[in-house]
Amino acid sequence: MNLPAKVYTKSDLEQAKKKGKVVGWMQAAGIIIGGAFVWNLLGWIPTLIVIGAVVYVLYRLLAKPSKPETVDVNDLNIDDIEV
User: Fold this and answer.
1) What is the C-alpha to C-alpha distance for residues 47 and 37, in angstroms, rounded to an integer?
2) Chain-wide mean pLDDT for the chain?
């Protein structure tokens, strides 16, 4: 039987939700402050180039790969090939 190791109360769950939101806000603030630091350090042109490169790589990784076209062997004619 898969019983939980501990039974959580409603107040425990509410406290965990609040703590999770606070941690999320702190992470977002850290990312914004770090991004502002990088922006001021590098300038806006290199930052835009890096952001563009990251977006391109993510697009290539997350986009569905196109199916390769199949070639029908019966359509090939050996007489059309020049040597």
Assistant:
1) 11
2) 82
* Residue 40, token pair as written in the block: 């001021």
Cα distance between residue 29 and residue 32, in whole Å: 5
Residue 56 · residue 48 · CB < 8 Å: no
Residues 21, 23: Cα–Cα separation, whole Å: 5
Distance CA 38, CA 8 (A): 42
Residue 54: both structure tokens together: 């990251």
Q: Which residues of 43-65 are buried (b: 16+ CB within 10 A; e: fewer)?
A: eeeeeeeeeeeeeeeeeeeeeee
Please provide the size of the chain in residues: 83
Place of tokens 């990088």: 38
pLDDT band, residue 81 (cuts 50/70/90): low
